[in-house]
Amino acid sequence: MADRRQFEFFLLRYVPNAVKEEFVNIGLVMTESGGDGGGFAEVHFTADWRRARCLDPNIDVEMLEALGREMERRLKDVQQRALLLHEMMDSYSNTLQLSPIRQCIAENPAEELKDLAQKLVEMPTIWSSSKEIQPKKVGRKWIHAGMSEAFVTAGVWEFLVKDFPASTYTNPEDDFVLDFAYPVGDELKIFHAVSLAAVGPETRMFPLRVAKIAPGMRERKVLPSFTAVVEDQFDEGDKAVKTVLAFLEDEKIRVARLREMPMIAEAARRELRA
Hints:
By secondary structure, the chain is α+β, with helices and mostly antiparallel strands.
């Protein structure tokens, strides 16, 4: 088994209007902590500028893409790397800003970078046979991306259990995984993305999964607390939605809308003392 190593990462944010304080993540830089400065260092720059164009139709994409290529080149040069990172921390304060630095633990940094970028930079998109459609703002992937960004922003990403296997408390053949969890004393707080705007088999099965998982946890003296994170908007009058909500209530699963995630993540930061 490969050794798990510690890395640092931060997001590159495009901020066309500092007064409005609106931004879109366009890149992610990940470097290896400690050592002689010659460890892993890579940048992921988006190739999909639609979200940025929603904020600024006049965005200079060519300039930003050139900047991405320059960053990639300099990060590969050990002698240039430290200078580049210093320049970024010291100078990026207007249109392009940096998020706070976060830490993560990984065996395969390239895969971790790809995973983080997919969750925090590249928002899910749907396609049709005839034309490209705007980024999809419903569904599990969209919700999961929003949850990830909230936890990263709050500084608790490295403290979370991610892709938590249900098989620990059910049976070895169970391949179901829960999105995020963290312990607080004897309690295990669990958060899972559940779509109510696009109700399908995955949504209907979630409360039934919890009904199987929770007893196994209690048998092992773990007190589970489940939260289903759903879209901000969905048809509350839809019969399928009403049925799912009733099952969630039966299993004592809290329902939180995606807009509540900053508060949830901040509560996690306090509880984890991050």
